[in-house]
Amino acid sequence: MLITAGAQAQQKPQYTQYPFNNYLINPAFAGIENYIDLKLGHRSQWTGLEGAPKTTYLTINAPIGEGFLNGGAGSGNPNERSYLRNYMAAEPHHGVGLQLITDKAGLISQNTLAGSYAYHLGLSSTSNLAVGVTAGVSQYSINSSEITIENPIDPAINNGNNSKWSPDVSVGALLYGPNYYAGASVQQVLSQSIFSSNSGQSKTVPHFLFTGGLRLYMTDDLTLMPSVLVKFINPAPTTYDVNMKVAFRNDFWVGGSYRKDDSFGALVGLNLSSLINIGYSYDLTTSSLNTVSRGSHEIVIGIMLNNTYNVKCPQRSF
């Protein structure tokens, strides 16, 4: 009782395969491809640890704009050097999207339903700028029936609000071209009270996220795609993720990742057809949780609807 300790962590789910679905962390990615991009994902973090986080999501985003839908994309395989010569900046167009995310960690659950809007504009023949916003609602709830308390009328449980809906807003900006992207976004722009009781209250805090990625052509068949995600979430320590993917043509890719003070990861993806692709990652825990955790698993299934040009992999996001 004489020793106290504090712990801080991000309130939003974390993803190892963020390059496979950047729309989750930056609304400016909505409508970046010229097809309807549907993603189904599930992440099981720190398996073997009771109450470990589990996240499941469905996202869908699509462009709106006749000039963009009928052109504006580089022809051929984006993982070949010829793509640079054929690349054209995006025609001005809109993007819309929808996110449905459920995240459970221990006794606390968070369900989010949100819609997105983005606007894309070509700055030059090879540079594009996009800005976007996501707005919706999040439900935070705590399963008090699983809590063992000494006093059955503990005011922190019985007098508290154990389920609450709150507005959820994110904004973002993105600069991208044929072989690079750089973006910044803020999640949970509006600070909201989550739970309150006679003993105090908890609030959401803004999450500042910065992303960047490159496409480096090594040979006619091999392409390197490094990327980074940096997170500033006060009062938690600054952290970052570094990923490296190696793509073989537009058929499959393999890669590795590192998350500061947390894990190393292995990633693999298959572009099965112009309709479906799939990605899987496994994170090996390096923090002190490695004594009770068997690592983290994440799987994402992508479906490309209305894929007029029959591309097998994303052209503008990677």
Report on this model:
It is globular and about 70 Å long. The protein contains 3 helices and 17 strands. The strands form 2 sheets. It has a 14-stranded antiparallel beta barrel with strand order 1-2-3-4-5-6-7-10-12-13-14-15-16-17. Strands 8-9 form a two-stranded antiparallel sheet. It is 4% helix and 51% strand. It has 318 residues and is mostly beta strands.
Report the average pLDDT across residues. 85
Q: How many distinct helices?
A: 3
Structural category is mainly beta
SSE sequence, one letter per element: EEHHEEEHEEEEEEEEEEEE
Low-confidence stretches: 1-8
Task: Name the strands of the widest sheet in spatial order.
Answer: 1-2-3-4-5-6-7-10-12-13-14-15-16-17
Biggest pleated-sheet summary: 14 strands, antiparallel, barrel
The level of helicity is under 10%
Query: Shape from CA axes?
Result: globular
By DSSP, the count of extended strands is 17
Rg measurement, Å: 21 Å
- Please report the distance between the alpha carbons of the first and last residues: 50 Å
- Report the portion of residues in β strands: over 45%
